[in-house]
Amino acid sequence: MLKAAAAAIESYFPNPDRRGCPPPDTVRQLARRRIPLPETGELVDHVATCSPCFQVYNRYRRPKLARVIGTTVLATIVLISLALVWRYRTAHEFTSPPQIAHVPAAPILSAMSDYREASPTRSTDVQVARTETPRLPTSLLNLTILLPFGTEDGQYAIQIRGSNGDPVSTASGTAQWSGTAEALAAKLDLRHLPAGAYSLAVRKGEASWHSYPLILEQAK
Asked: Does domain 108-217 have CATH number 1.10.3470?
């Protein structure tokens, strides 16, 4: 609105003959606020209705106005910055930090399944163990599988299979001779499985699967 009013004064009140115009120095003194206010009445009326004098007045006012605006903007920025700093410090000093619930890590149990006496015959059928069927808890396990004698070292795939023969948990591990047995070490997560009869199947590379009986018991 101020810009529109200034533009209107500069163009709507032409005075090409400069009738009644005060000296330019007087207009400059008015713009610089160097004339006492009681003495500015008629001068202000003339400048406000004379486009040439208003342009001179406006030319002298703009540098000072720019300084005032710049000072005002700087002060505003400083005040806003102080307010933001105060809010930040208040939030950190008087607001309790969020409490993070501590979820204990699931324990990893060590377990062993001994199939050293089982037949190494290559077959998809579950091999009959010559000893008691191994039992494992339904937990997160560091499992050592003692494979039948004659099994080779190497990388093996492992499956826990349900009664229908479908895998319900998988893993992989490396088998090597321990001095007394071919030991296959792997990590198995059995926490999602119910207790019951299963089978444990292993194979090396693309060879046939070897499957052995297994019983899972509810972890205590």
From this structure: no
